[in-house]
Amino acid sequence: MKVSRRKIAQIIASRIEAGDSFPKLAKEIAAYLLTEKRVEELAPLIRDVIEYRASKGIVEATVTSASDLENKIIKELELYIKSIHPETKRVVINKRINRDLIGGLKLNVINDQLDLSIRAKLNRFRELTNQGGV
User: Fold this and answer.
1) In this structure, are 72 and 130 located in the same domain?
2) What is the full per-residue pLDDT of the chain (134 aa) written as tens digits?
3) What is the largest CA-CA distance in the chain?
4) 22 plus 43 within the same structural domain
5) What are the CA-CA distances from residue 22 to residues 1, 101, 117 (Å)?
6) Which domain, by its residues, includes 33?
7) Distance between CA atoms of 52 and 59, rounded to whole angstroms?
8) E runs forming strands in the chain
9) Phi, psi at residue 113, to the nearest 5°?
10) 76 and 120 both lie in a single domain
């Protein structure tokens, strides 16, 4: 009997909350998906885990910046996330460094993205000037 992707997501989420090792858990998930010939379900499975955790009040976000962010900015991001997802009990922020960003940051929360990078601002400015808005 095939186990539903949502059930697998619930199991993964509960193991994350129990404090299981991420590398060990990742290997187990990969092995399961390979054995069951369900590798193409990896991306949707990850989304299911994120959505399931969010339904339990744990919102996971990824912030990408050109350099390491100060704790003050991380706290402001947590407050922002709680303002757009008021049911949030806990925010987990995964930080990524992308040296290709000129400055600013990108924030991905569940299915939303906030792009505050310099490149995005320059692109928006270019669009406005091409439309005669500036």
Assistant:
1) yes
2) 789 999 999 999 999 999 999 899 999 999 999 999 999 999 999 999 999 999 999 999 999 999 999 999 999 999 999 999 999 999 999 999 998 888 889 999 988 898 988 888 888 888 888 887 55
3) 61
4) yes
5) 27, 28, 30
6) 1-56
7) 9
8) 58-65, 90-97, 105-109, 112-115
9) -130, 135
10) yes
